[in-house]
């Protein structure tokens, strides 16, 4: 049994119902992942908090500050399972902070959902207790304010020590070499974690934020069962990029048969291979109507599979390109990597600042622009510019027709760069001459093109 979607209404920034489809695990790496991306304050953590509310056996209370006035100060969190049966938490008839369950017996049971907020900290000196996964999930409270230490985590630390081999095996997938760690008793009767990095010792208070955060994440994974649901807010917190990559791979492996929801600002946690396998990306954005969620449909997922097989252009979907999901908006699509470099040079020579970011190292040829523009469109990007060579006018017209809200333009030359004649090809006279200087007779037209991009991308431009 799996979660198909969750719908949040009236919690924090969510005014109307906002539905997020979940990745369904099918045995393939990453298939059970749901990755929530979007700018700051777009509601990512709120979705994680909504899942946390579903992990409480008794209906939670929501303070006034957590409720959205535009939604009548009423909260509704619905979850639908693979048998199309829904259960929900909703504000009671009388209103106020109190909620009630509707159909509480439906799958998933609260104990199946394990949620980690961002800012994962615990009291470094703690009392003795031992909590199983289920006991911990039901024991830790929903903090009324964000960023507090996670209570009862010490119970999990004693559990980690009891299952040390299993825990270290998973931690060692990300952190190598593994530090030696153990629980120690202080003279005042409290306990602490002691870490030993090749003779350099410190207690839990001295542990780096990244290490502590990783302990929480590995704890959420290592004793989970297939079918369980794990949500992690900002898994990348305080982690070095190479650890982020290893952690992302570890999480993707667990997502073969578990559902894992991540809210992230890190491109390491989005991989197109996982998306093609079934993972879902949800991009949350704030619009005048409130917070909105955008997700890719099968139409583009199929076309992405084709791009993934393009061995000559692995960067089309590479890390630089994935960075685009973490931008606010204003994306400039160009044909290839030379274009990215040369248009930057031209803008510099014309002393015009372009208020947008180039998509990775280009889209890998004019023919791919429709796929990338389509992906951006489905993910709710409002302002996208495409610059094509003069000899791709027909493609430019088709793009303008398919994406009327976006702006596609051809440059006045057949290429950006000039190229010498080779046997099978006539010479190409590009915008830039052989020394990389913009040819004088293109200055006026390129200024015009860049100015028009600017007026489209600037926030006050009318569309
Ligand atoms: N009671 C409330 N009513 C309306 N909007 C709220 C309320 N509480 C928080 N918000 C808004 O909800 C959003 C919270 O988003 P959050 O989930 O923290 O975003 P993210 O994790 O994406 O940064 C913010 O835009 C904030 O302005
Ligand atoms: Mg957040």
From TrEMBL:
<feature type="domain" description="ATPase AAA-type core">
    <location>
        <begin position="205"/>
        <end position="271"/>
    </location>
</feature>
<dbReference type="InterPro" id="IPR038729">
    <property type="entry name" value="Rad50/SbcC_AAA"/>
</dbReference>
<dbReference type="InterPro" id="IPR003959">
    <property type="entry name" value="ATPase_AAA_core"/>
</dbReference>
<dbReference type="GO" id="GO:0006302">
    <property type="term" value="P:double-strand break repair"/>
</dbReference>
<dbReference type="GO" id="GO:0005524">
    <property type="term" value="F:ATP binding"/>
</dbReference>
<dbReference type="Pfam" id="PF13304">
    <property type="entry name" value="AAA_21"/>
</dbReference>
<dbReference type="InterPro" id="IPR051396">
    <property type="entry name" value="Bact_Antivir_Def_Nuclease"/>
</dbReference>
<dbReference type="InterPro" id="IPR027417">
    <property type="entry name" value="P-loop_NTPase"/>
</dbReference>
<dbReference type="Pfam" id="PF13476">
    <property type="entry name" value="AAA_23"/>
</dbReference>
<dbReference type="GO" id="GO:0016887">
    <property type="term" value="F:ATP hydrolysis activity"/>
</dbReference>
<feature type="domain" description="Rad50/SbcC-type AAA">
    <location>
        <begin position="7"/>
        <end position="82"/>
    </location>
</feature>
<protein>
    <submittedName>
        <fullName>AAA family ATPase</fullName>
    </submittedName>
</protein>
């Amino acid at each position: 049994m799996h979660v198909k979607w969750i719908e949040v209404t009236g919690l924090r920034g969510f005014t109307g119902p906002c539905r997020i489809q979940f990745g369904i695990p099918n045995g393939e790496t990453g298939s059970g992942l749901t990755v929530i991306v979007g700018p700051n304050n777009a509601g990512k953590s709120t979705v994680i908090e909504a899942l946390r509310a579903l992990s409480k056996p008794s209906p939670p209370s929501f303070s006034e500050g957590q409720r959205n006035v535009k939604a009548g100060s009423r909260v509704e969190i619905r979850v639908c399972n693979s048998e199309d049966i829904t259960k929900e938490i909703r504000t009671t008839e009388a209103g106020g902070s109190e909620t009630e369950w509707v159909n509480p017996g439906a799958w998933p049971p609260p104990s199946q959902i394990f949620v980690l907020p961002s800012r994962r900290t615990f009291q470094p000196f703690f009392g003795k207790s031992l909590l199983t996964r289920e006991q911990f999930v039901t024991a830790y409270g929903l903090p009324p304010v964000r960023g507090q230490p996670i209570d009862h985590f010490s119970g999990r630390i004693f559990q980690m020590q009891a299952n040390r081999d299993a825990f270290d095996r998973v931690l060692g997938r990300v952190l190598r070499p593994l530090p030696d760690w153990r629980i120690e008793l202080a003279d005042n009767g409290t306990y602490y974690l002691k870490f030993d990095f090749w003779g350099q010792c410190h207690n839990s208070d001295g542990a780096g934020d990244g290490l502590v955060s990783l302990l929480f994440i590995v704890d959420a994974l290592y004793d989970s069962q297939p079918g369980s649901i794990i949500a992690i807010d900002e898994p990348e917190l305080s982690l070095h990029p190479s650890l982020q990559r290893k952690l992302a791979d570890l999480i993707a492996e667990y997502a073969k048969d578990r559902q894992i929801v991540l809210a992230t600002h890190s491109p390491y946690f989005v991989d197109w291979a996982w998306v093609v396998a079934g993972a879902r990306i949800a991009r949350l954005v704030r619009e005048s109507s409130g917070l909105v969620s955008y997700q890719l449909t099968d139409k583009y997922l199929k076309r992405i599979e084709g791009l993934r097989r393009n061995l000559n252009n692995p960067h089309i979907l590479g890390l630089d390109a994935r960075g685009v999901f973490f931008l606010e908006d204003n994306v400039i699509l160009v044909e290839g990597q030379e274009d990215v470099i040369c248009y930057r040079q031209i803008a510099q020579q014309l002393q015009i600042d372009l208020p947008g970011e180039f998509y990775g190292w280009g889209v890998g040829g004019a023919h791919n622009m429709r796929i990338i523009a389509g992906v951006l469109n489905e993910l709710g990007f409002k302002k996208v510019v495409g610059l094509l060579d003069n000899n791709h006018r027909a493609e430019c017209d088709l793009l303008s027709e398919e994406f009327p809200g976006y702006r596609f333009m051809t440059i006045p030359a057949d290429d950006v760069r000039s190229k010498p004649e080779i046997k099978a090809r006539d010479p190409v006279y590009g915008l830039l001459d052989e020394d990389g200087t913009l040819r004088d007779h293109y200055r006026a037209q390129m200024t015009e093109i860049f100015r028009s991009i600017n007026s489209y991308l600037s926030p006050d431009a009318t569309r």
